Description:
alpha/beta, 9-stranded mixed sheet, 28 strands, AAA family ATPase, P-loop_NTPase
Amino acid sequence: MSDEPTEPSDPDQEPAMRDETTPDEPKENIVHFNPWRDFNDAAPQIDVFGDEPDPEQIAQFMQVVFGYCDGLIPVRSFIDKGQGIDGRPHNIWLEADHSAPEKMATFATWASREGAAVYVIPGTVAAPGQAKATDILQMQTVVVDLDTGDIAAKRAHLERHLGAPSMVVESGGVTAEGQRKCHVWWALTEPAEGDDIARVCRLRGDIAAKVGGDMHFRSAHQPIRVAGSVYYKNNLKTQVRIVELNADRERDLAEFIEAVTDMPPAPGVSLQPAFTHPDKPVLDEVLVTPVREGAQDDWSRFEGASAAIGHFIRMVHEGRMTKDEGWIGICGYNAAMLRPQWPVERLKRESERLWELHVKKYGPPLIRLDSGAPGPVEMPAFTLGALLDDQSPMPEDIIAPRVLTPGGLLVLGGAPKVGKSDLLISWLVHMAAGVPFLGFTPPRPLRIFYLQAEIQYHYLRERLKQIALPPEVLAAARDTFVATPKLKMLLDNEGSVRVARAIRTAFPDAPPDILCVDPIRNLFDGGPDGGGENDNTAMMFFLKERVEVLRDHIDPDCGVILIHHTKKLSKHQVKEDPFLALSGASALRGFYTSGLILHRPDEDASERKLEIELRNGPALPSKLIDKVRGQWVEINPMNERLVRQDIGARHDAERDRKNQVVLGMIFDEAAEGRLYTATQFAEAFENQHDLGGRYSIRERLSVLATKGLIKFRRSFTEHGYAGTQSHFGYLVIRDMRFGRDPVIDTDTGEVLAEGVAVLPTHYKCPHSGRAREVENPSVWVYPEEVHD
C-alpha cells in the first residue's frame, strides 16, 4: 500500500484532506497557520536522535512543485500510525509566493515535534477550506508514487522512456523486498489549468498503471509527503529526502503525454486491473461464501453485498459485462449467498449508490457492445520461416488497390467546403454499385452504412438527387447504400449500441463491408477526460475504445472510413507533407491504414488534388480531379503546369483579358458603323489597350477564329462594304449589330433593336485553317470541345 493517505474507509489509512464522498471536516480541525505561533505547547516524547526537517530540501521541493503556481497550497499534518499516540489532523493553506518555503519549514518543524507527518496537495486552490479535486486551479508537476516491487527497475524503466525526472524523493517507507519507496516528479514548463488538470491526472494514472505505481494519483486532490519533512511510522523516524534533483529539467505537457503513450509497460507489469485489497476479504471468497445476518460470520451481510456489488460494478464499468449481465450477477449473489436475502429495492438502491460513486471517482464507463468479438487468448507470433513459407492468397481488397483492406481504417480529410462530402457520396454510391470510381475499384457491389451527422433528412435526399450519377449506378446501389440523416448523438457507449442496432436492422442477412463516419468532429467521444479531437490521448481513446470496438462488434473484417477536418497550413506545408493538416494528426496518422487529403492547389481554380498515403500497399500517386458536367473525373496530370505555376497563371489571365478586349472592340466598332478585316484591325489598334503590336493582335485574332469565337462575312454591300481581298473577310462575332439605327416592327411600331444584325458567311476550319462556308448563319456553332 502507499504511504500516502487514500481511502477514508480503510482503518489503516489516514483520510485525505477532503474526500469527494465525505462531508466537510469540523472547523475545529482547521488551523489558521501563523509562522510565529508557538506550537510547542504539548509535545509528546519522541526519538530525539532521529532526523529533523531540512529547510533547504523543503525550499527545493516547493520550487519544483509550486514555483510557477498562483493561489493557496493545501497543507495537512497528522500522526503517522504505529507510534502509539493519537492526535487530530491540522490543515493550513499557504500562499504560493516567496514566503511559502519558510512557512512550510516552520510548520514542518512544529509537526516534527508533534510526531506528525506533513502532506501537500500538489496543486493550488482559490480559498482556505478548499481541497476537493474540483477546487484545484493549477498543477505544475506530474508525479508517480513507486511503493511496491522492484523500485530501482521501475525508475530505470521510467528514465529510459521518459528521460531524467526533475526530482526524485525517497518517501521514508521500505518495500517488503527492502527497497526504499519513492516519488518521481516531472515539472511542466507552465502550470496546467482548466481541462489540462484532468489531462495531468489521467497522465499520472497512465504512468502508475504502466510501472505498477500507486493509482490513487489519478485524483487531483490526492496528497503527498513533503520532501524535507519527517516520516514517522512503526517506531521509525527518518527524513523524507530528495535523492535526485534536476530542477531545470521541464517538460511540455503535450509532448510528455505522447512520450507516456509510447512507453510500454514495465517488465512484469500487467495493465489488467486488480480488484482485491490486502486488507479486505478476498473477492473469490466473498462471492462463494454464505453470509448470515447478525454478524455471525467473518464479514457482515452489508460488507459482503457491498464487495459483490462493487465487483460487478467494476466489471460493467470496465466493459467486461453489460449492465443487464451485471444486474443479473448482483441478484444471483443476493439469492445464493445472503441469508436472508436483501429486498430487491434495497439491492437496487445500494447498487445505484455505489455506481454513482464509482463513476464520480473513475469517470464515465467504458461499456463494450453486448456481443463484441472477444480478443485472442494468446498473442499470435510467427517465425521468419513461417512467414516466408506461407503461400496462401492475399485477402481481397475492399477497395483496390489496397486503398481499404479488410479491417482497415481509411481517413479522408479536407478543409470545409472543399467538396469532400460530395466526393465521398459519389465514391460510396459507386462502391455500393460495384463500379470503379477515379481508379478505385471494388471487387463486387459493397454493402455500405453511411453514418453521417451533418445533413438533415430532406437536404440529404435533395443532395443525393442533385449529384450527377449515371442511372445504372443509382439503380445498382439502391439497396446496398444505407445512410442516416443528421444524428444528434456521440459515438459513446449508448451511441455505439444505437449504431450497432441500426446496422443490424439495415443489413439483417450479412454485415456491411464499409462503415463510414462523417465527420469525426460531430460524433467524437474523447473518453473520461472529455478531450477534443485535437487531443492525441482523446483521439486514441476514440479510435480504440469506440471505432475499433464498434467495428469488431459488426465484423472484424469490416472496413472503416472516417471523415475529418484539416487545419490551416501554408501552401508550402501542404506541398511538403499534406497529412500534417489532419487535426489530432500524431495519433490519427499513426493509427490509420490509408489516408486521403482533398485540397485545392489553387484557390482560384476548380481542380482539387487528392493526396494518398497507404500503409498496406505501394505508394499511389496523387490524383488531380474536378467536376465536369456534374460528375467527378480524373484529369491527366500531364495537363497540369508543373513549374512557375504562379507566373503561368498570370499569363493565362492576361491572354483571357486580351481576348475579351478584342471581342469587345469588334462589337463596339460595328455598332459605330465600322467593320474590319483581321489585317486592318491589327494595324488600326496597334499598341492600344495594352494589346501589343499588330503581329500580336493578328495572333490573337487567329486563335479566336480557330476557337470559333470569331467568324467572317465576305461582303456587306448594302451598307457600303464590298467584297475584300482578304482570304476570310470582315470580322464577325456572335450577336454583333451594325450601326445604331432603330429596327421598328412595321405592324406595332415597337422598337425591336438597334442596328442591323451582321451574320457570318464563313468560318475558319479548326483542323485545316481554311475558310469554310457557314451552313446556317442564324445559328452560331462552335467547334467540338469549345464552349462559350
